[in-house]
Design a protein that fits this description.
Radius of gyration: 37 Å
Structural class: alpha+beta
Largest sheet: 9 strands, mixed
Strand content: 25-35%
Shape: globular
Helix content: 25-40%
Number of helices: 36
Number of strands: 68
Length: 1407
């Protein structure tokens, strides 16, 4: 909690406006969170629409807040609000501003034009983001170097450019760069518009670099939800962002302490930049203006340093006359670190200087120190020995820390000092130049690399370095433990503790503490919250596994945890970063991780009313293999990836990514670590395929060329060098960069051999150093080559036909030949070894092995060929038949044929009614995977993966997998039993399935019927026609209307209870087509429709009958009734229940139906719990082509109906539903033309629905005319219509009930949810039926069906509380109880259900 005394200490309490700029600069997208805490009534939706940049939005809100609250808008409230939303970093930044005098006056007019000498200096300070401070009492100005750097800075201020300052460690590069940037900005007026961004890089990995750049993105105002989730896509995004936002690119970006040459590629987004590094790479001379930092001071500069250290600047001229001082300066070669240390020695006599001279010349120094012309070791030792004994020890202990900025909090813990004593000693060490004290971004110190080298060795030469360092780590760990009293998660973040604690515990060798931390989910959760990523926790676990494995200790639990973090990392809610909820989402059923997470969540829920969700019932298709699956990536615009061999040490994955269709690139990464090893960009180019060699060293990709063959490029992954093609070895100077080919194959046994193909020829190539050379071994064919692949022993297989494969039978004519030729060629002799023929088409019918003659029109076409067993090849042939007219009704057939090419024998293995999506075979030819899809008249397409296991060249076993993903492509990982599944055409989300899982249900192939024409072995014996779920009596209940395909009987299956294992089957009428169940209604209802025909006097009559069965679930009793639909304009062909609801006050179910023939009529039927049909209403108005529900509740129905003949003519109809003795009535009709003017419709629902009528207002859509909109709707509603509409749409509906509001687009999808002045735009498809109704609940819950994420918002503030995603569930629809503490989730086919609930709800049956 923040107190007023603290705020007063800042000296800023007079005017909060003085802090608006600094808060807005750092706040980023969190301005909305701050708005909710400070004043949730302010219209942030309007601010969001009016301004583009996050900075401008934050400034606008803060100004609005201040003008609204005036004297009550205090700095105290701002700081407390920032603390509440977790932005203590901004509070710290404000704290640091107390060092600047009169900051209120200087910043009050920051946005206005003011005289330079009044406010520019402070503006410059604010715009110098993280630029290190260099106080004049500590640092000198190296004028010559600063003049050179400032000159270059002035040049790139006028024109874009890049500077590199390089030089040895300790030469003062960072100090000179900081001083130059400050001078260029404050005195020379450079970079005044956008300022400077200073980024310290250091010796870091790519993951850490990604997070640093991501933070930079937030600083510059990039929307957080648009920032890509990996480094390479982030680079492309930043380039695009600064190209669009030209004004932002005027900032200077400084990248300090670059160690890795490849990292320069990630900084190319900066138009104006300055890099600082010890190293100068050849390419730097091309891309940068390079400035060498001298590793020595000028004589005058050295004198200034010594004078500052002795605090007698006025006597510096006298120093030049002292011979001994001059000799000391020259004796240390004017090395900056040595001069600084000497200045801190406070030498006062000629004897003191002579003693130092003697030390410099001495040869008594350890071998571990870098070689200098003077004894630097002796100078460091002399400086330390001037300290008191306890101070010396404290300084030596600093050698325990990693080579990063060390925060004061961790130093205080190590020394066991309070904060005041810690600062006192820190300042003393700073004055002696033993360390550097920095205040930017929180107080911390920096040790020179040479000083760290000194401190990491014991002063006692008899003590081993390993023992000494372990003692240091033990001291630090013990100090941390004393600070937190064993509650490791209670220590506040200082930027070091959570990141490096595990490192120090491992180095300390404290197994007990290490084991405790690895089971302490509270500490892990705190670590993830602080670091905002799982990456560091994963690295900690990896290090711990290596540590305990080296000691032969069990690591099973750590491996379980690491596997879970690795596989499910993309599912982490990056907004809340709640690790406990993450474990509840992703943990295996009954695993120790899940049980531990439940215990912690239960404790937190009882302590502070935290809300946690858990899976109580898993779907029946849940398989352990999924939990061993890994979401490889989930980025848009990719093609399927491929992998190298898993056995050769270079397990790499190659993929194509295309960011916003602007930069297409090929990436190769390490499969286990995800580290990018190779990247090449091809802007504005369509890349279609990627291949990688078995050893992972060569990658090839195809460039699409319209109307011609693909163009293939090949690159060396390790050297990043392109390999050129040479057709003639004698003419190497005539190499080409690419080759045109339909296919490109690497030899699985010889990585340097490549095969390409044209329509009539295949060519063999060999990789020879930097070239790909034609081996002059080719196979030609007069026929069309359809497919080619490598076999063992220098053999290739060709599949060819007499005509173009893609032509249909009809286009070929009656002279076509139904043959495909399969040839095996030996490459060494270029001779054909074997030939066999197979039919390209086979008959449609039971005689599956028959071929198609010329009279057949339909048949099965050869669609896939692959070898099994490369020593004695057996051919796997897949035939497929399509009937384009009705694919949704299952008129497709798949046949798998297994053939021996030596004797042309044919064995039919499997015949299914399902259509094949994709097929794959493992490299060892032991596994065959087929992805199948089944259509029927009842359910959404059902996808299945069938795995066949090949043993001794025979298919012996098969496995049926029901994946959670809507897969479109299958691929095996090389030399493994891991299967890749790509689940979307656009994103190709990649999932890894482990087919070695112990509990997979492999079955004997003998149990598989060859003549399984309808696919019974892989399709269920039962069809789920319809299903529904609800909470009658507050118990999760599912009802499924099922057709038994064998008996042709229908049953209603009822599943109840928290685990849905209380199952009852009830026989029902054969007429039933739909089923329903409701909260608070004791019956399940089955509804069907039939047409009864009879002949009377040679005239055919028809009765349209609706059959209704009420099944009392608790007692399995049922009641039947029939209702004849009269007053229809035409005999009905179909009855469709659009929506139904239960009116609780009178226990009445309301059905909203359309009765269809050539057009549609609306029917409304009410049935009460007394098993009586209360009322039936048939709308006898003119007929309509489409009838849609806009809004309905217990008393009202509003529909949109499109005219039967005039497709642009619509009617909005308002019906008052029957109540007691009052029948259903059509009250009002509003008509409009969607093309001419469209509509803006507002429906005002009364709070007391039963007592008041709703209001429907319908006006033409005239968004382009603001004054007209305001005149028609008032300013509030006009702004809503304009802010949340899309230019191309011209039909919008506003539904308002009390203080709640919804906005629907012309597709009746919800685009906005609001409460009072708070609004939230919804960016994915959600319909009014998905949220049932507008009701006063605390949680507003919606489901993103595409990503299967459940979002829980506060119903009033609309702040996102949780984003819940379970890897076991593919939620397509959710239904909740009235309290919204429990949800039933169902998949897309409504066949698999699961129950999730809050921990509080779980508590009811936990014990």
């Amino acid at each position: 909690m923040v107190d007023n005394q603290y705020v007063s200490s800042l000296g800023l309490a007079q005017d909060p406006k003085s802090l608006f700029h600094i808060i807005a600069m750092h706040l980023g997208a969190d301005w909305t969170k701050l708005a909710v805490v400070l004043d949730y009534t302010i219209r942030i939706d309007i601010i969001d629409a009016d301004y583009k940049m996050e900075y401008d939005k934050a400034i606008a809100f803060l100004k609005h807040w201040h003008s609204k609250h005036l004297d009550h808008a205090t700095v105290y409230k701002m700081i407390q609000a920032l603390t509440d939303i977790g932005r203590t970093d901004i509070v710290t930044t404000i704290d640091n501003l107390q060092h600047f005098d009169h900051i209120e006056t200087r910043l009050a007019d920051l946005q206005d034009s003011v005289p330079y000498n009044q406010s520019k200096s402070t503006i410059s300070e604010i715009m110098l983001r993280n630029v290190p401070r260099t106080p004049e009492n500590q640092y000198i100005l190296r004028k010559e170097m600063i003049d050179i750097i400032c000159h270059r800075l002035n040049c790139i201020n006028e024109e874009n450019g890049h500077i590199l300052i390089h030089g040895n460690a300790g030469s003062g590069k960072t100090i000179a760069a900081s001083q130059s940037v400050r001078r260029a900005m404050s005195l020379e007026g450079c970079f005044q518009q956008q300022g400077v961004y200073w980024l310290t890089i250091g010796e870091i990995d790519e993951t850490t670099l990604y997070h640093k750049l991501k933070h930079l993105c937030i600083q510059t105002g990039m929307p957080l939800n648009e920032i890509p989730d990996n480094l390479h896509c982030l680079q492309a995004y930043m380039i695009h962002y600064f190209e669009v936002n030209v004004e932002k690119s005027e900032a200077l970006f400084v990248f300090d302490d670059i160690w890795n040459e490849s990292y320069y590629n990630y900084f190319t987004f900066a138009k104006k930049s300055m890099a600082i590094s010890r190293y100068l790479y050849p390419e730097n001379n091309i891309t940068h203006c390079c400035i060498l930092m001298k590793d020595y001071l000028e004589y005058d500069e050295a004198v200034q340093v010594i004078a500052k250290g002795q605090n007698r600047m006025e006597n510096s001229q006298n120093l030049d006359d002292l011979q001994s001082i001059t000799e000391v300066i020259e004796g240390c070669c004017r090395f900056p670190l040595a001069i600084g240390l000497i200045s801190g020695l406070q030498l006062s006599s000629s004897q003191d200087w002579n003693n130092i001279k003697t030390l410099l010349e001495s040869q008594d120094r350890p071998d571990r120190m870098p070689v200098h012309k003077f004894n630097l070791f002796a100078i460091i030792t002399q400086s330390i020995q001037q300290l008191e004994t306890n101070e010396q020890n404290c300084f030596y202990w600093l050698g325990v820390f990693k080579r990063v900025s060390i925060p004061i909090g961790s130093i205080a813990a190590l020394w066991n000092y309070n904060k005041q004593d810690t600062f006192k000693l820190i300042f003393k060490l700073r004055d002696k130049s033993l360390l550097k004290y920095v205040e930017n971004g929180g107080s911390h110190i920096i040790l020179h690399d040479l000083m760290v080298d000194y401190l990491q060795y014991p002063m006692d030469e008899n003590k081993l370095r390993k023992v000494y360092q372990q003692e240091l780590h033990q001291r630090l760990v013990k100090s941390y433990k004393m600070r937190c009293q064993g509650q490791w998660h209670s220590i506040s973040d200082d930027g070091y503790y959570y990141k490096y604690l595990i490192h120090h515990v491992i180095k300390a060798g404290d197994d007990d503490i290490l084991q405790y931390l690895l089971s302490d989910f509270n500490w892990m959760a705190a670590k993830v919250k602080v670091l905002r990523t799982l990456q560091d926790l994963r690295l900690d676990l990896h290090d711990c596994i290596q540590y305990f494995s080296s000691k032969q200790q069990a690591v099973n639990r750590m491996e379980d945890l690491l596997g879970l973090l690795t596989y499910c990392e993309p599912l982490l809610d990056t907004e809340n970063l709640d690790l406990i909820q993450f474990f509840l989402n992703c943990g295996l059923k009954d695993s120790w991780i899940t049980e531990r997470a439940i215990d912690l969540a239960y404790g937190k829920a009882n302590k502070d009313d935290s809300v946690y969700w858990m899976v109580k019932t898993y779907p029946k298709t849940f398989q352990h293999s999924w939990m061993e699956s890994k979401l490889i990536n989930n980025y848009l615009h990719k093609s399927p990836s491929c992998c190298s061999d898993n056995c050769n040490g270079n397990f790499r994955i190659a993929e194509i990514r295309n960011y916003n269709n602007e930069e297409c690139c090929v990436l190769v990464s390490d499969f286990q670590t995800s580290k990018i090893l190779f990247k090449i960009s091809r802007p504005a180019t369509l890349l279609t395929q990627v291949k990688i060699s078995n050893n992972g060293k060569i990658v090839a990709f195809a460039i699409y060329c319209y109307g011609t063959m693909l163009k293939w490029e090949v690159h060396d992954v390790d050297t990043n060098q392109q390999l050129l093609f040479i057709q003639d070895t004698s003419q190497r100077d005539k190499s080409v960069a690419n080759i045109r080919s339909w296919s490109f194959n690497f030899n699985t046994t010889e990585d340097t051999m490549i095969m390409t193909s044209t329509n009539h020829q295949i060519t063999i190539w060999k990789v020879d150093e930097d070239y790909i050379v034609n081996m002059e071994k080719s196979v030609s064919s007069l026929k069309f080559i359809r497919q080619c692949l490598f076999l063992k022993h220098d053999k290739v297989l060709l599949l060819s036909s007499d005509y173009d494969w893609n032509r249909s039978q009809q286009s070929i004519g009656r002279d076509w030949t139904n043959k495909c030729y399969i040839e095996v060629w030996h490459l060494e002799s270029c001779q054909r070894q074997s030939l066999c023929q197979v039919p390209q088409w086979i008959c449609h019918g039971q005689d599956d092995t028959g071929t198609l003659n010329k009279d057949h029109v339909l048949g099965f076409k050869l669609n896939y060929i692959q070898c099994i067993g490369q020593d004695h090849p057996m051919l796997l042939l897949i035939y497929e038949m399509f009937e384009d007219s009705m694919p949704e009704k299952g008129h497709t057939r798949l046949i798998l044929k297994f053939m021996n090419p030596r004797n042309n024998s044919v064995q039919l293995l499997y015949h299914s009614s399902k259509r094949m999506i994709s097929a794959a075979i493992s490299d060892d030819h032991h596994l065959i995977a087929m992805g199948l899809i089944a259509f029927n008249c009842y359910t959404i397409p059902e996808r299945t993966i069938v795995i066949f296991k090949v043993i001794s060249n025979r298919i012996e076993k098969y496995l049926n997998i029901n994946p959670l993903q809507d897969f479109f492509c299958l691929r095996f990982i090389s030399n493994s039993q891991q299967l890749f599944i790509y689940d979307n055409y656009q994103t190709y989300d990649t999932h890894q399935y482990n087919l070695r899982a112990e509990n997979l249900a492999w079955e004997s192939i003998k149990d598989l019927s060859v003549k399984d024409y309808t696919g019974h072995h892989f399709a269920k014996d039962e069809y789920v026609i319809d299903s529904c779920c609800a909470f009658p009596n507050d118990i999760p209940t599912i009802v499924q209307l099922i057709l038994n395909k064998n008996s042709k009987r229908k049953i209603l299956r009822v599943k109840q209870g928290e685990t849905l294992d209380d199952i009852t089957d009830i026989s029902i009428s054969q007429k039933s087509q739909q089923c329903f169940i409701y909260n608070g209604f004791k019956y399940a209802i089955a509804v069907g429709f039939s047409k009864i025909l009879w002949l009377n006097c040679k005239k055919l009559y028809a009765r349209n009958v609706m059959s209704i069965e009420l099944i009392e679930v608790s007692r399995s009793k049922k009641f039947q009734m029939e209702l004849e639909l009269t007053d229809l304009k035409y005999n009905a062909d179909k009855l469709d229940i659009m929506q139904s609801r239960c009116r609780k006050f009178d226990k009445t179910v309301i059905f909203f139906m359309t009765v269809a023939h050539v057009s549609k009529q609306l029917a409304i039927i009410l049935i009460n719990e007394d098993r009586q049909i209360k009322t039936m209403y048939i709308d006898n108005d003119i007929l309509y082509n489409i009838i849609e529900i806009v809004y309905c509740d217990d008393y009202n129905l509003v529909t949109r109906q499109r005219h039967k003949n005039e497709h642009d003519e619509y009617a909005i109809k308002w019906y008052k539903l029957a109540k007691e003795d009052i029948p259903t009535k059509l009250l009002k009709i509003y008509t409009y033309n969607s093309i001419h003017h469209g509509i803006a419709c507002k429906i005002v629902v009364p709070i007391m629905e039963e007592q008041h009528n709703l209001s429907v207002i319908l006006l033409p859509w005239n968004m382009r005319y603001w004054d007209s909109m305001v005149k028609s709707w008032g300013e509030r509603d006009a702004k809503i219509f304009v802010n949340y509409s899309i230019e191309d749409d011209n039909q919008y509906f506003l539904i308002e009930k009390g203080e709640e509001i919804l906005m629907l687009n012309e597709y009746l999808q919800i685009v906005m949810k609001g409460y009072r002045e708070n609004k939230r735009r919804l960016h994915f498809k959600i319909y009014l039926t998905d949220i049932l109704e507008i009701r006063p609940i605390q949680i507003f819950t919606i489901l993103d069906r595409n990503k299967h994420i459940i979002y829980c918002h506060n119903n009033k503030t609309l702040v996102l509380n949780q984003a819940i995603q379970f890897p076991h569930l593919q939620s397509y629809k959710i239904t909740g109880n009235d309290q919204q503490t429990c949800f039933i989730c169902c998949d897309k086919g409504c066949q698999n259900y699961s129950v999730i609930q809050t921990i509080h709800a779980y508590d009811k049956f936990r014990y």
